[in-house]
């Protein structure tokens, strides 16, 4: 059992997650020029099916001075039919990747921690993981490719809703997903669409559904609210020194899968429970 996406995969299900009636790809290429959507990076490693790719993003915790990579659990582990976990191997994070050979950093990941309630299903409400490099405060330009542009433009600041509540999300609220489709050869794509609904899972977690286009390889992307009025209200609900007027978007979930029957995509909501788990994992790693 596994969900890893083969590198460069083009299969009969490569349109999985494209939600227009005719499977039109409505996503836009992120060029990193001018003012661009804050992009994450591509995760690459080895699973039971060979080289796989997924999406992750740098997650900074100022309290403990630790930088980590936030992604979905099924980007770092697989589950056998006998319910044994198999960690994926040789994990690397390519920060701000733009094609197969261009990136601002290539960071080896030495540790991945999966939420203990993850049961192998992307819809369980706990398909989330945090990964660490050997350097707890790694340089985001280490091992950069030789052809990295000198000027990547200016990215948009994105906040983080550490105690996301499904009741705060209203139908048609504008969401955005920016990540790395497995069939796009290392290029990032972005699309916006409406929030549809939320569902509590039997394990106690929560998933949210939305009409935002994705395809395999984008699992692990952050799901971001882009409604500026909602974000302004969120900053009042949960003020923090690092949340400035530049923060006009807010991450609330991690994208994990597609529901072809329901015609929606879905992700793991970053609830207070998950936020506290993340803090504890990062605190523990900071003491190592």
- How many helices? The count is 2
Q: How would you state the average pLDDT, rounded?
A: 83
Fraction of residues in H or I helices? under 10%
The share of residues in extended strands comes to 35-45%
Q: State the strand order across the main sheet.
A: 4-5-6-11-10-9
Question: How is this structure best described in words?
Answer:
The two termini are 32 Å apart. The protein has two helices and 19 strands. It has helices spanning 228-237, 272-286; strands at residues 5-6, 28-29, 35-36, 41-47, 50-61, 66-71, 77-79, 85-87, 89-95, 105-114, 129-133, 154-155, 158-160, 174-179, 189-200, 206-210, 222-225, 249-259, 264-269. The strands form four sheets. It has a six-stranded antiparallel beta barrel. The longest helix is centred in the last third of the chain and has 15 residues, at 272-286.
Feature tags:
single chain; mainly beta; six-stranded antiparallel β-barrel; 9% helix; globular
Question: Layout of helices and strands, plus pairs?
Answer:
Blueprint: E1 5-6, E2 28-29, E3 35-36, E4 41-47, E5 50-61, E6 66-71, E7 77-79, E8 85-87, E9 89-95, E10 105-114, E11 129-133, E12 154-155, E13 158-160, E14 174-179, E15 189-200, E16 206-210, E17 222-225, H1 228-237, E18 249-259, E19 264-269, H2 272-286
Parallel strand pairs: 3-12, 13-18
Antiparallel strand pairs: 1-5, 2-15, 4-5, 4-9, 5-6, 6-11, 7-8, 9-10, 10-11, 14-15, 14-17, 15-16, 16-19, 17-18, 18-19
């Amino acid at each position: 059992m596994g969900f890893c996406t083969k590198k460069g995969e083009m299969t009969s299900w490569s349109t999985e997650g494209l939600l227009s009636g005719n499977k039109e790809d409505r996503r836009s290429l992120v060029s990193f020029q001018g003012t661009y959507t804050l992009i994450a990076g591509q995760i690459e490693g080895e699973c039971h099916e060979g080289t796989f790719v997924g999406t992750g993003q740098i997650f900074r915790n100022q309290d403990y001075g630790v930088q980590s990579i936030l992604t979905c659990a099924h980007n770092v582990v697989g589950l056998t039919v006998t319910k044994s976990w198999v960690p994926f191997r040789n994990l690397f994070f390519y920060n701000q990747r733009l094609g197969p050979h261009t990136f601002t950093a290539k960071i080896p990941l030495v540790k991945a921690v999966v939420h203990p309630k993850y049961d192998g299903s992307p819809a369980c409400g706990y398909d989330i993981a945090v990964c660490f490099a050997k350097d707890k405060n790694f340089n985001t330009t280490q091992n950069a490719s030789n052809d990295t542009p000198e000027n990547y433009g200016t990215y948009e600041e994105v906040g983080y809703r550490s105690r996301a509540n499904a009741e705060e999300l209203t139908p048609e609220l504008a969401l955005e997903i920016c990540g790395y489709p497995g069939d796009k050869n290392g290029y990032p794509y972005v699309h916006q669409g409406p929030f549809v609904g939320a569902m509590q899972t039997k394990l106690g977690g929560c998933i949210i559904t939305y009409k935002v286009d994705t395809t395999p390889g984008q699992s692990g992307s952050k799901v971001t609210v882009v409604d500026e009025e909602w974000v302004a209200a969120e900053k009042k609900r949960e003020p923090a020194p690092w949340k400035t007027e530049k923060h006009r978007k807010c991450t609330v979930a991690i994208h994990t899968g597609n529901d072809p029957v329901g015609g929606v995509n879905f992700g793991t909501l970053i609830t207070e429970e998950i936020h506290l788990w993340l803090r504890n994992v990062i605190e523990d790693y900071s003491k190592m």
